[in-house]
Design goal:
This protein is of the alpha/beta class. It is built from 7 helices and 6 strands, in the order H-H-H-E-H-H-E-H-E-E-E-H-E. Helix 3 packs antiparallel against helix 4. The longest helix is centred in the first third of the chain and has 51 residues. It starts with a helix and ends with a strand. The model has no long low-confidence stretch (mean pLDDT about 90).
Length: about 240
Amino acid sequence: MSITNGEKKDKIELSSNKPEKIFCGMVSNMIKHVFLIFRTYLDMFIDLVYGYFWEGKRKPIPALEKRHAMLAESAVTLAAKIRNKELKSEDLVRACIERIQQVNPIINAVTDERYEDALNEAREVDKLIESGLPDDYFQKKPFLGVPFTAKESHAARGMLHTLGVVSRRHVRAHHDAECVSLVKGAGAILVAVTNVPEINKWMESRNFVFGQTNNPHHTGRTPGGSSGGEAALHASIAAPISL
């Protein structure tokens, strides 16, 4: 099979371009590595500077008191204790509220609360249990009497529903989001709603309506987002169920 002059010319051009392509690839690779090294050291420098700044703003949250020790138990265990009359829902909800009131001035997690309504609902649960309930009732409501909190972006009827947006700062939900409705349907009692990034878009739970939520393990650091308020509250052992 014979090769034409045109094909020979194309092959010569391709072979002559190879060193140039190899060189460009090497330069590109080198630039990437230099950038990665620069970025690594820049991150270390920023972490050092900001770490020094935020370390001075670190505030410890109060230790869990003995009367609130029940909050360290799982929601399943607490529900079983309420069901078996070993624990009153009112006592559990009150402990949850008191713990939130202790830690929230430091972590800034709660955006709206319904403490009195939650206590009233807990009292009703205790009355129901005292009156005697069939087993199938507890199967339908496995978390009967257990308090919970939800991120503010989940609509909860009557509660603020701003999503951290200034123009929505007075907006309240007229209905429950499906997830909130399901948890309530399981018998849990909503106590409060918590902070989120603006429209749930950022990695930190900070906005111009409620400000910044802090990490309870180190208040100079972020608990992340978009469920930062819930994360901070749960890590503070303040809510058995976080939504």
